[in-house]
Sequence to fold (476 residues):
Amino acid sequence: MSDVTGTELRALMAHVPSVEQVMASDGFAALAEEFGRTQVLATLRGALDGWRAAALAGCASVGSLDLPALTASVEQNLRERNRAKFRTVFNLTGTVLHTNLGRALLPDAAVSAVVAALTRPANLEFNLETGKRGDRDDLIDELICELTGAEAATVVNNNAAAVLLTLSALAPKKEVIVSRGELVEIGGAFRIPDIMMRAGARLREVGTTNRTHLKDYDEAIGPRTALLMKVHTSNYAINGFTKEVTVAELAPLSKERSVPMAVDLGSGTLVDLTQWGLPREATVRETITAGADLVTFSGDKLLGGPQAGLIVGRRDLIAKIKKHPLKRALRVGKLTLAALEPVLQLYRAPELLAERLTTLRLLTRPADAMRAAAERVQPALQRTAGERYTVTVEPMFSQIGSGALPVDLLPSYGLVVRTADGKRGGRQLLALEKKLRELPRPLVGRVADDALRLDLRCLEAADEAEFVAQLAGSEG
Ligand SMILES: *Cc1c(COP(=O)(O)O)cnc(C)c1O
Fold:
């Protein structure tokens, strides 16, 4: 305990300034201007209480009660407390559509539309032609139909919501037939059997994990069947002795037995990606043309827009979906619609898409550009890391991410950090990884094979100066 005598303690406490006096100082007046008086006062009282407790324990210095010292410590406390928890980072993981880092980055056109929608009233549910109440889907459904060839469309909060709503509206207390090879779990607890149960539909599994035949679907159809459903196996691939019934193969059965077919495409691209040398992925239009009655897909995966779930397809089915009460609960906000329209409009100019659509620009970035960027920023990272580490420019592979094309890898370049002594440097590497993660705009890479790997695919030229300046501020 304390070895401070009562007299000494009283003498110490006499140094504690009056709160009113401190608050009246120029420094605290400036803090009150910025943070508001209530918060500043509470923080100051907390600091003084802390000092008194330290004094009792015999470990307080009178110097920390100086006005400049007190101002600095209260200010630091206020700044830390008020620093946003939600921050931007550098995504150097090599995964372009990284679910944990916010997936697609929006192009400028979408950003300005969102800013306008945030700061001005808009015709969200107001028909400017009639002057009457409108439907928020009306702002966007024609454009979606134009780009997908669908008859009708509706938009909800995300693709999980799109699937939940579709099943809730079209298959309550009825059966939905799904192949055992397509009972997917997407990260974050989205599992087809669970969603089915939540929607009040009964899952009727057919086929096996590796092989499902047309006759499996055929034999399972009965009076209680509401839907045939196909689910994109977004985050895994089944190889070897396999058989899948394609949408085109299933379509005649669906028509003949009058059971609609819904396809959850997951990523759902609107264009043929092979024109940019990317792996092939069925487009929404192809899926509709092949005979799907409904297609659900995400707004913020390959499409490159805001988080949203798009449901497109037959007019009568979409009308039923829109009437379901869950539609109101799962509807999108105005910011989503503001961002989605300009992103979709970019698809009207496919020849400019790889330049304008951020996601596609990142996915098609030439390896040379990443190599040159890596060479430019290598010295800055080497200086920050210090001589205990070596930083080299090396080829590596990025991924698309978000369950799109899980087995395909894109050649890239980046920085690889290893311990200089060549020893397996688990703890040392993790210390550096943590330090980079604690920067004002954190660098997020990945540690694998005794090295910290920073893929530079997503560090575009516009961000490079900030990247280097931040490293320069944290050397040593
Ligand atoms: C990603 C994905 C979902 C979920 O989409 P969110 O937009 O993340 O809600 C559903 N189904 C499939 C097949 C997916 O790939």
Remarks:
- The chain has three domains: 6-82, 90-99+361-472, 108-356.
- The mean pLDDT is 94.
- The two ends are 39 Å apart (CA to CA).
- Residues 158-160, 163, 184, 186, 190, 231-232, 234, 264, 266-267, 298, 309, 403 surround pyridoxal-5'-phosphate (CB under 6 Å).
